[in-house]
What we know:
This protein is of the alpha+beta class. It has two domains: 21-191, no CATH class; 204-352, 2-Layer Sandwich (Alpha-Beta Plaits), CATH 3.30.70. The chain is built from twelve helices and seven strands. The chain has a five-stranded mixed sheet with strand order 2-3-1-6-7, sandwiched between helices. Helix 1 runs antiparallel to helix 2 (51-72) and helix 2 (51-72) runs antiparallel to helix 3 (76-98). The longest helix is centred in the middle third of the chain and has 42 residues, at 153-194. It is elongated, with a radius of gyration of 32 Å. Bound molecules: guanosine-5'-triphosphate (GTP). Guanosine-5'-triphosphate (GTP) is lined by residues 198, 231-236, 239, 244, 247-248, 251, 273-274, 343, 347. The site of guanosine-5'-triphosphate (GTP) has 16 residues, from strand 1, helix 9 and helix 10. One of its GO terms (cellular component) is plasma membrane.
Amino acid sequence: MPPSTLVLPRATSRGSSVAGKAYWGMVGRVALTAATIDAAYIVLFLLLGSVPLAAINLISIAMYLSAYALIRRRRNMLGVTLIWVEVVAHSALGSLMIGWESGFHYYLLLFIPAIVIANTKGYAMPMVLGLLVYYLGLKSLCEYLGPLAPLPPRRVEIVNAIHVCLIFGMFAALASFYRRTILVAEARLLKQATLDPLTGLSNRGHFQTLASNELARCQRSGAPVALMLCDVDHFKQVNDHCGHAAGDRALVHVAQILSANLRECDVLARWGGEEFLALLPDSSLLAAHAAAERIRAAIEAHPLIIDGTPIAITLSFGVAQLQGGHDLQDATARADKALYESKRAGRNRVSLG
Ligand SMILES: Nc1nc2c(ncn2[C@@H]2O[C@H](COP(=O)(O)OP(=O)(O)OP(=O)(O)O)[C@@H](O)[C@H]2O)c(=O)[nH]1
């Protein structure tokens, strides 16, 4: 039997620093897989004529099933400790009984990535060194004592070959788990760094990156570019009369209508509290004005429904054309001035800057 199908990173009661819930789900599956492989190993060792090793696998199954039950009950620390004890003890017993050549010691190598990645309290290096000392000590002891329950060399070769195959599979599974964990974390970080958590639109920083790319493209092709800045009218009243949660829903509502009415190539962002900014590539001032009018009418036509009551929401717009040099800052300032003009003139309108 393999002492374990995987050696596990960081055992804390709160969860792994690497994965959390998914991690403990994976640990539980590892314990079950290891118990299943141990069951197969009982049959193998009986066929190879090693009753003591078959008996050891029975104990291993009990340990893995107990570890699984503990993890299910969220006693993660205890469960994972049981798995580690099983791996260490099983690799030692297997090596001592049928010899170092059986390859039971390969499973100890799985501890190396697990220890280094978990790096519990910064003790990774001493732990790896401790493992090395244990590994070499076990090798010397096996060579000194010789196999305690020897098998014919051909059968030892079979056991070794099975262990090699399993170790390949386990390292691949371990690497794949860490890879997936890193990719998920990377995607989450990227989302946090680029998107506004409430509306899911780009944040300011991300807008500037996307807008620069679009501007560079339009500059090369000589296509016109326009900016559209809009702001929810009397938004403070929505918060004051309907509550902050309703205010949040209103912002999401506006973001959805803006997204639905802009093109795929337009760059839209939540610019500030209740302010949204869109860069419209390949758009003249006239076209941008028409788009803003369309969105203004769509917002007006779709009031937000809170507890069955329609809440009228309107937007004021400032639209500006980017000039030859495509100075985003200058165009934003002009759009802002135009927006102010819309507010001053009574709101729910579009002004050009
Ligand atoms: N619910 C909610 N409110 C926000 C958020 N961000 C900003 N606000 C609120 O938006 C309101 C903006 O108010 P004002 O700047 O006075 O603007 P206004 O009431 O829309 O008035 P005008 O712009 O002049 O039409 C403030 O009360 C902010 O607290 C948010 O994420 N959620």
